[in-house]
Structures are given as structure tokens and as C-alpha cells.
Specification:
5 helices; globular
């Protein structure tokens, strides 16, 4: 499986898991009054799967550490982008503060959970021992895989 495909699958599963626990899109659609809830859900899954999932797949080689930690860092960055680039265009204001002081904190926790899930799932979908490494180079050191060639 290619790296982007792994990212999309990991993004979809992480979005699905968090959406089963919380109902963010109905709330956002109602408060923002921008989209009907069904379109907000479609957009939510599209962004969580294709945009963030693929972005994690492309950016994770630049990060160090286990995949769940890479996901946490990515989740924090995604939260910051949403706070600065998305929420000001809704009725939530900068960092969602028009909805209350708890909004940015809760959204940070949700994005950190998403990041940890997407990183963990991405790592679990990775190449197994004996399979070719997707980048053609050395295996990821955080997985403790042995390099097939002497160094």
C-alpha cells in the first residue's frame, strides 16, 4: 500500500473513531449556520480523511519518534491551522473564543486525539518485516526494524 493510501485510511479511521464519540459537525453546522449538517459531515470526513490524512502521510517522514508522537505533533499543527485559518470565517471568531473560553481547549484535545490515532493507525498499516520499505530507503528507526544491508 502506498504512503498516501495509508494516510487516507488512517485519517478516515481516526475521523470515524472520534466522530463516534463526539458530534462536532452538527454543532459546528448549527452554530456557524453555514452548511446543513449532512454537508458538514461530508466535509468533515473529506478533510479528516483526504486532506489531513494525506498531509500526515507526506509530513511524517520529516518528524522523529514513534508514529503516535508524530501524530500528536501533527494534531497540534492541524489545530493551530483550524484556529487561525478556518474559525475566523465562521461565527466562532479567532480561536473560537466567541463560543467561550473552553472551545480552543476542547478543540485542541480533539485534534491531539485525532493526531495520536492517525499516527498510530498509520504506523500499524506500515510495511511488515520482509516487505519493501515504501520510500525505498532505510526502515523507520522508531519501529526498530533492522536494515537489510550492512552499513
Amino acid at each position: 500500500m502506498d504512503v498516501i493510501g495509508r494516510g487516507v485510511i488512517a485519517g478516515f479511521l481516526a475521523t470515524l473513531a472520534l466522530s463516534a464519540v463526539i458530534d462536532p459537525m452538527t454543532t459546528v453546522a448549527r452554530i456557524g449556520d453555514l452548511l446543513p449538517p449532512i454537508f458538514a459531515w461530508i466535509l468533515h470526513f473529506f478533510v479528516g480523511s483526504f486532506i489531513w490524512g494525506a498531509a500526515f502521510a507526506l509530513l511524517q517522514p520529516c518528524m522523529r519518534g514513534p508514529f503516535w508522537l508524530r501524530g500528536l505533533v501533527f494534531g497540534a499543527a492541524a489545530w493551530l491551522i483550524v484556529m487561525i485559518a478556518v474559525l475566523p470565517f465562521t461565527r466562532a471568531g479567532w480561536f473560537g473564543l466567541d463560543l467561550g473560553l473552553a472551545t480552543p481547549a476542547i478543540m485542541l484535545l480533539v485534534h491531539l486525539a485525532y493526531g495520536a490515532l492517525v499516527g498510530s493507525i498509520f504506523g500499524a498499516l506500515g510495511p511488515r518485516q520482509g516487505e519493501a520499505h515504501p520510500h525505498g530507503g532505510a526502515p523507520d528507526e522508531s519501529n526498530n526494524e533492522l536494515h537489510p544491508l550492512p552499513r
